[in-house]
């Protein structure tokens, strides 16, 4: 059913002169099912490469234990653990050596929804699954473009796939690279949005924070990540929204995934997992302060974050949790903290970041790594299992891709996955966008509520055409739209 990859045809590619990169080239693909864009921006050390892929030779998706693999040989559906099927697919396609074009020359591009936690641990599922979308989709592109932003170089890659018992072939009715280059000089398309609503009203969010602090006082947990989801009607071009966000606030892990019946837009700055051979890395983010309106105010917020004992303790707890997670798949004595409490600046917020690394055991696969670490500790809490139970109790709807992961699973023992924060889903003319923060015993209810608004402000301003300030966002969240079923 899966077949094998028999060749990679690689050629250099010249992009049109002027500003922009793959975000412009992808314009002609934005409405193509299973076209995927992983877009890097900014100047951080994990923002070197951008990748786009389309024309998949294989698509795997799962909902619960119903797994479907679509390929040239047909469609195969079965009831199984989705991680087991993903491991089978990757093992069948795996290629030897390093990727000819770093960091990625062939493999799957897609997402893992947060609810895949239920296949890894015995957990409750009381939150409402109001969208009913797949828990994972991985598209394996036949055509790829990889851009090295630092070196100013670009390559096109054709993945030659041979189905079982058949000859390798190309895709059908797929956009050609020449057509994409011709469309890359474009203007922004239009869209219209409706009234913003939240799954939490303000008072219920404050009560949820208070309940979390009580769980901490009773000794259940040390920390929980608590989120609220905003929704608004949307008509028009969803990809234009990504372009506006990217130009305003570039970050290392932007993504646009056209999943056929729905689209995912992510503006994440947090790396979940990076693997290159035996090297494994995770970069948790904990600790947030808003950017100031003036340079002096900005400096005050920065110093406040760097000096905060609360934020230091929160990040240190998650670093310890992730060291333990990596220890399940790494060789003894190889796990270390490469960097701790690095301050990173973005348009609306400052964040504290740590880098935890390890040496992977030679027998471990991509799926072994995911089983040991998913979902990321920075967006669950500590201890992880009890934190996930409390999240399900307090949040009214499932998270889906939010706090899951987006990125690529390479066929050359390489992967790069982000934590899907600052991430929106467009489905049935509605956009859903969640924001959250880590709650510890010293948290103040009102401050935690305000933090969620700071984190979402770039999107709120754009959909409000510049007029969506914090007061109007609070008014939009004044009533809760969804109750538990």
Description:
The protein has one domain: 4-Layer Sandwich (Anthranilate synthase), CATH 3.60.120.10. It has helices spanning 22-25, 82-93, 177-183, 202-217, 238-248, 295-307, 309-327, 366-373, 384-394, 445-463, 470-476; strands spanning 4-12, 36-39, 49-63, 66-71, 74-79, 107-112, 136-148, 153-162, 191-193, 197-198, 223-236, 253-258, 263-268, 271-276, 279-282, 285-290, 336-345, 349-359, 381-382, 405-410, 414-419, 423-427, 430-439. The radius of gyration is 22 Å and the shape is globular. It is 26% helix and 34% strand. It is of the alpha+beta class and 485 residues long. The chain is built from eleven helices and 23 strands. The chain has a 23-stranded antiparallel β-sheet that branches. The model is unreliable at 465-469 and 479-485 (pLDDT under 50). A hairpin with a 2-residue loop joins strand 4 (66-71) and strand 5. InterPro entries: ADC_synthase, Anth_synth_I-like, Anth_synth_I_N, Chorismate_C. Residues 24-153 form the Anthranilate synthase component I N-terminal domain. Residues 202-455 form the Chorismate-utilising enzyme C-terminal domain.
